[in-house]
Specification:
about 500 residues; alpha+beta; five-stranded mixed β-sheet; about 15% strand; binds adenosine-5'-diphosphate
Length: about 500
């Protein structure tokens, strides 16, 4: 269990897990915007507040500037006067502004002399400042120094009574930005708290989503595991996503293929057992009947023993055929391809089978249309031809005829075996290649058939990438035609 959890964790951390990827995507998609929005809001707030503060101060200073002019603060008008009372009022106004904004206001006249300093340190001194000089030239400025925590600005004092408005003085003001920073800090603290809360919520959501989204895939794995463990062999269904439907469909097809294979294997084992038991039962009956007759004559013994030997031969034949079939079934079994003279091969097979034909008084004819040389597996090709010719003899009538025709074009050679025998009923034609299928069981047994010959033949033909067809008329005869490529692709490829 611990090992399993560790394995899951390792897979999760190695990012090979889809769940880990979903988790990270949701996490990033949730967190990145919230971080960006937070820093944007804070930056925006600072910029906006500084601009607001500058504009507020400028407005108030402009009002003070007007008062300065109307009270002839700079003594610019010969008829004007500047009483100490009005001067006090203006000074109080300036003090108020500097207190309100925690700053310092200096009034500088056109000879760059400080006429008023709310700090009271620079009065009477001359100020050589680029900003002030520029302001006299008409370019007022404001400058935010975040590092030192103040905002500096110049405000022109314009005498509107003179034509085209003459700048008679400049106010150089610096105010603190502390209140802005304090608000910013509070805002930042709150947004960090909010963001932490968001992290927790998004983490939870990411976790939850990754689990929920992966659930159908887990269900697929679970269903497949149940089939694998053998608890169920039912088709599975997980219709949640198109992807799970595809996986499940593919799995169900595999399952049904396995079921078919399993059924055919079961059927084959049943057939094999049955076929193998039949000669055994015969032997048992023969032996038992001898045993129950203690003084049976020697001739009876000999007769029964001959029958027993025949049954043993049959059993042997079935086993030999079965082994041939199993060998054929092995996909890995490579064909042993050689270039062969097929005419010679057919001659040899017919020569071997001639004694059986003679026994049944069946005439055999070989018609070779042209010499054929082909790339085939000699053993398997011999098996194909022997089985077909042997069947044509076995299922023939007395004094019947078997004709073998060998022909070829530039791609294939055809091997045709026709007989004048019993023929195969139409409804049996589809079954003759099945293992253990026999049209007439007792007749086939009588003549030593196992029902495996044509199954072996078809497998061998398919291994050569060839085709086998059959025409038959009951009571008239049968014709099997085998068509095999002259050149074996794999062999030719190897040979160049
Ligand atoms: P078996 O060992 O019984 O001959 P096969 O697989 O070779 O098995 O053939 C299957 C069945 O097809 C046979 O039992 C027989 O009934 C039928 N059959 C095969 N070849 C012929 C033929 N040339 N003429 C008539 N029936 C045939």
């Amino acid at each position: 269990m611990v090992k399993k959890i560790l394995g899951e964790l390792k897979r999760f951390l190695s990012l090979r897990s889809l769940q880990a990827r979903i988790f990270i995507i949701v996490l990033v998609a949730g967190l990145v915007p919230s971080i960006i929005v937070r820093s944007m809001i804070l930056d925006n707030y600072e910029e906006h507040s500084v601009a607001q503060r500058i504009s507020n101060v400028q407005n108030q200073l402009l009002i003070v500037g007007n008062h300065l002019i109307s009270n002839n603060y700079f003594n610019t008008k010969p008829e004007g006067y500047s009483s100490s009372v009005s001067r006090d009022v203006i000074d109080a106004e300036l003090e108020m502004i500097s207190n309100l904004y925690e700053g310092r206001v200096m009034i500088i006249d056109s000879s760059l002399r400080v006429m008023k300093d709310t700090y009271g340190i620079s009065e009477g001194k001359t100020i050589i400042s680029e900003e002030v000089i520029r302001c006299f030239q008409g370019a007022n400025m404001s400058n935010y120094d975040r590092e030192h925590g103040y905002i500096e600005m110049t405000t022109p004092i314009v005498d509107a009574t003179v034509d085209s408005g003459q700048i008679v003085g400049v106010m150089l003001t610096s105010i603190s930005n502390e209140t802005i920073l304090a608000t910013l800090e509070t805002l930042d603290r709150r947004s960090v708290t909010f963001q932490n809360l968001m992290v927790v919520i998004i983490l939870g959501m990411a976790m939850l989503l990754s689990i929920i989204l992966m659930r159908p895939f887990n269900r697929v794995t679970q269903a497949i595991n149940e089939v694998k463990a053998g608890y169920s062999d039912e088709s599975i269904s997980v219709p949640d996503y198109a992807e799970t439907v595809h996986i499940v469909d593919a799995f169900n097809q595999l399952l049904s293929r396995m079921r078919t294979l399993d059924n055919s294997r079961q059927e084959f084992v049943e057939n094999v057992s049955h076929e193998l038991k039949t000669p055994m039962a015969g032997i048992k009956v023969l032996a038992d009947s001898l045993l129950t007759q203690p003084d049976a004559p020697a001739e009876l013994y000999r007769e029964f023993m001959t029958d027993i030997a025949t049954e043993i031969d049959r059993e042997n034949q079935i086993i030999t055929d079965l082994l041939a079939l199993v060998k054929m079934d092995k996909k890995a079994q490579e064909l042993n391809i050689v270039s062969l003279n097929v005419n010679d091969m057919v001659e040899l097979i017919l020569k071997r089978l001639r004694p059986i034909a003679r026994k049944r008084d069946v005439e055999m004819v070989f018609e070779s249309v042209r010499p054929v040389v082909a790339e085939v597996d000699e053993v398997k090709m011999t098996l194909i031809m022997t089985n077909l010719v042997e069947n044509a003899i076995k299922y023939n009538k007395e004094h019947g005829r078997v004709k073998v025709v060998l022909d070829a074009d530039h791609q294939f050679f055809t091997f045709e075996v026709s007989d004048t025998g019993l023929g195969i009923p139409a409804d049996s034609l589809a079954h003759i290649y099945e293992r253990f299928y026999r049209v007439d069981k007792s007749h086939s047994r009588e003549i030593g058939g196992t029902g495996l010959g044509l199954a072996i033949t078809k497998s061998a033909v398919l291994m050569h990438r060839g085709a086998i067809t059959v025409d038959s008329a009951e009571g008239e005869g049968t014709r099997f035609t085998v068509k095999i490529p002259l050149y074996n692709a794999a062999h030719s490829g190897q040979g160049g």
